[in-house]
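re: that chain from earlier
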Amino acid sequence: MRRTYLLGTWVVGAVLLGATASGVRGVEPGAGATLAVPLPGLGEGAAEPVAAGGPPAATRVPPATATATAAEPLAATGAPLATEPAMSTGSPAATETIAPLTNETLVLPAEAFASGTIYDWVVIDTHVGIIDPAFPMSIVRLRYDDATGMNRPSRAEYFYARGAPFGPGLPLPESNVNYQELGVYLEWAAYPRFSVFVDAPTRFLDPTINTNSAGFSDLITGFKWAWLFTEQAVATFQFKTYIPTGDADRGLGTDHVSLEPGFLLFWRVGNFLDVEGELRNWIPISGTNFAGDVLRYGLALSLSHHRAADRYWLTPVAEFVGWTVLNGKESVAFSATDFYVQQAGADTIVNVYYGARLGWGQRIDFYGGYGHPLTGEFWYRDFLRFEARLHF
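^ sequence. v structure.
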């Protein structure tokens, strides 16, 4: 029942994001709208219509050759093209053709990427749903996670804190946890190469031995800096800070600050394949003797193809994510009284995730995916994720 309610909440939020996208997307390439471009030298308020969706290109006279007299209207459709009169010196009037704005005009030159001044193309070119995307973006994201079969929830205090009586976590040892999380994520690209973000999840915990709980989990903040930004590849340094805002005694948080530096990569291979990857190191600050460093790494493959601004698109994506616990401990419980503690260092977990991203134009897209472990050690046995993103 709770899963149905939470999934319904996500659906309502996704619909609201979609409605917002339709209201804020404005003029998109290929939408058939007309842009008014002011021309210096034609007087205040003068502008020429420029085709934004495929009509014949308009022409205009460069400002240097324009006169102070009123100019004739410039053609933006199939009518004969008009030009302004030449200057009084008698020199013939020069004309300049303005290409119509289409989807193809969004293909940016390499130097634009190198300078980091233009990055519109990246809005819909990242398809991953598990790996963190390398692109600094301005987005609002609503995400729903559903995981079952978590048999070592206290491992390295990566998910939640060590339990009582020697830790601030759940009052009893726990043998299995199912959980759902509903998270709101906001990222703002202050500059094409740099963004800041905050992730605010709410966790719903369903343990086998302890009582159920629900509430705000640990807050995540951070930034991205794309130190390499080219037409074919983007490489980014990311830094996350995990703030212990969740109640550890209810299984909602770790009860300690954690830092996570990482490197993210996007690489376009030819015209049909996108490769995305990550390497992150989760470092707990303080915590109990259960707390340990966790190295996370991942690789994603997805199809790359042209997406029109006025139609749906669908891209499948496969992701492989691994974790290696470098140190720390974990509790292995069979009941409230039958349990023991062991070292968690050298535990390695590898998961595979199958998913797809569906979008409309360049503002709104949705992701759905399923994952499961490939190794004997695991965080959870089954994992579902749904998310909706609005780009602004």
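The first strand starts at residue 34 and ends at 38.
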